[in-house]
From TrEMBL:
Gene3D superfamilies: 3.40.50.12240. InterPro entries: ATP-synt_VA_C, ATPase_F1/V1/A1_a/bsu_N, ATPase_F1/V1/A1_a/bsu_nucl-bd, P-loop_NTPase, V-ATPase_su_B/beta. Residues 11-65 form the ATPase F1/V1/A1 complex alpha/beta subunit N-terminal domain. Produces ATP from ADP in the presence of a proton gradient across the membrane. The V-type beta chain is a regulatory subunit. GO terms for molecular function: ATP binding; proton-transporting ATP synthase activity, rotational mechanism; proton-transporting ATPase activity, rotational mechanism. Belongs to the ATPase alpha/beta chains family. Residues 355-454 form the ATP synthase A/B type C-terminal domain. Residues 131-350 form the ATPase F1/V1/A1 complex alpha/beta subunit nucleotide-binding domain. One of its GO terms (biological process) is proton motive force-driven plasma membrane ATP synthesis. It comes from the Bacteria. This is V-type ATP synthase beta chain. Keywords: ATP synthesis, Hydrogen ion transport, Ion transport, Transport.
């Protein structure tokens, strides 16, 4: 049942207050009719006794304290859903902005979602191939996982997001049952146009549902954008049986909107001005990833956030790291050296990787190759630290070989560029080729039988040369 009220008691910024209200619910949708007959929408954000505080989406300019008519709609914000949302572009609250008309919804769903019963969750298995060696080979993305990308100001996380959307796919029987929900928050117009144009030019737009919140849009819309994107993803996964990859960028812009909204409500700030409930707020988004037992679909999250001043202890990456299952970290030193994408493999981690790779998933030698590459690259860092003190010419022969391996590993394995798409087999074969440039005695993390089958120093240079030419033996 909807209730109507005449007049407002207070207008402050984008918030209005309504007194003597009964039967109102938190996050209930509201319609405000102005004197000229125009209608604006809002949402109840706080209830204090009989007072309801409402956030107006379109702002409060022109509202009258005496003649504004307020109607409480009796339900939270709902998103119209159907499979037609694929290939479409929407604003942050789910309204079409691509000029293709409205979506004829087969269902309306609460954007806040419903928590999954932990007992009904299925453990994530299988992997999503991104075509990026530093992710597929060393930090594999598993279906149903939440794996954030930690970036910094000026680093190419937008290009990396486009590359993942363009290249991500499933292998095996589910290869055709895959789609992407892409949500942007607080981006500039040119960045949003770049995303849309890139998806259309590469022919992947038909499998993408895009939700765009621009930097000049209201902050309440920014707070709702990831919820709309995740509601769409849950519908496609659990109602349509699809495997959905959700990419959200930039979560730092979302958290800053939460901070601004909290400040306007007069709430007591916590660390760096963020509200004390930021952890639970982020968890309400990240925990919407997963697989339901008995269902065919899955929701995998790849949120992207920028760390202010590259500070990984900042509240946004810090709290995100507590909730999610690892992180992909972009490295500024690699970026300055022209390594693209600049993924710092030693500081990155996928905690669920071990359960979705190996025999029956990728290849039986995958985990061993990844462990050996990590170990060798860690020794490269030790050799570089020593070289910075005594000079590279004074290093031992073994350390000099590690230095050479490190340069090739960064330039070829990590630095594949934003337009190279490698299969899992190509990534693992390249890993073996790079390991084969080291003495066999250095491969102390590999089973002797695996070394016997795959260690081919005589073919290593040829394989690497073919990769540099854009081929793969």
């Amino acid at each position: 049942m909807s209730l109507k009220y005449l007049g407002l008691d207070r207008i402050e910024g984008s918030l209005v207050a309504l007194d003597h209200v009964s039967g109102v619910s938190n996050e209930e949708m509201v319609e405000l009719t102005l004197e000229d007959g125009s209608v604006r929408t809002g949402r109840v954000t706080m209830i204090e006794g009989e007072r309801a505080v409402i956030q107006v989406f379109q702002g409060t300019d022109g509202l009258s304290l005496t003649n504004t008519k307020t109607r409480l709609l009796g339900h939270p914000m709902e998103l119209g859903l159907s499979k037609e949302i694929l290939g479409r572009t929407f604003n942050g609250i789910g309204e079409p902005i691509d000029g293709m008309g409205p979506v004829y919804a087969s269902k309306f769903a609460d954007v806040n979602g419903r928590p999954l019963n932990p007992v009904s969750r299925e453990y994530p298995r299988n992997y999503i191939q991104t075509g990026i060696s530093a992710i597929d080979g060393l930090n594999t993305l598993i279906r149903g996982q939440k794996l954030p990308i930690f970036s910094g100001s000026g680093l190419p996380h937008d290009q990396l997001a486009v590359q993942i959307v363009r290249q991500a796919k499933l292998t095996g029987e589910d290869a055709g049952n895959f789609c992407i929900v892409f949500g942007t928050m607080g981006v500039k117009n040119d960045v949003a146009d770049m995303f849309r144009r890139s998806f259309e030019e590469t022919g992947v737009m038909e499998k993408v549902a895009m939700y765009v919140n621009l930097s000049d849009d209201p902050i309440i819309e920014r707070i709702l954008t990831p919820r709309c994107a995740l509601t769409a993803a849950e519908y496609l996964a659990y109602e349509c049986g699809m495997n959905v990859l959700v990419i959200l960028t930039d979560m730092t812009a979302y958290c800053e909107a939460v901070r601004e909204f909290s400040s306007s409500n007069g709430e007591i700030p916590s660390r760096k001005g963020y509200p004390g409930y930021l952890y639970s707020d982020l968890a309400s988004l990240y925990e919407r990833a997963g697989i339901v037992k008995g269902g065919k679909g899955s929701v995998t999250q790849l949120p992207i956030l920028t760390m202010p001043n590259d500070d990984i202890t900042h509240p946004v990456p810090d709290l995100t790291g507590y909730i999610t299952e690892g992180q992909i970290v972009l490295d500024r030193d690699l970026f300055m050296n022209g390594i693209m994408p600049p993924i710092g493999v030693l500081s990155s981690l996928s905690r669920l990787m071990k359960d979705g790779i190996g025999e029956g998933y990728t290849r039986k030698d995958h985990q061993d190759v990844a462990n050996q590459l990590f170990a060798c690259y860690a020794k490269v860092q030790d050799a570089r630290s020593l070289a910075s003190v005594i000079g590279e010419d004074e290093l031992s022969e073994m350390d000099q070989q590690y230095m050479k391996f490190g340069r090739r590993f960064e330039q070829i394995f990590i630095g594949q560029g934003f337009h190279t798409n490698r299969s899992m087999q190509e990534t693992l074969n390249l890993g073996w080729a790079l390991l084969s440039t080291l003495p066999e005695a250095a491969l102390d993390r590999l089973d002797p039988q695996l070394i016997k089958e795959n260690y081919h120093p005589e073919h290593a240079e040829e394989t690497i040369k073919l990769v540099l030419q854009g081929e793969q033996k």
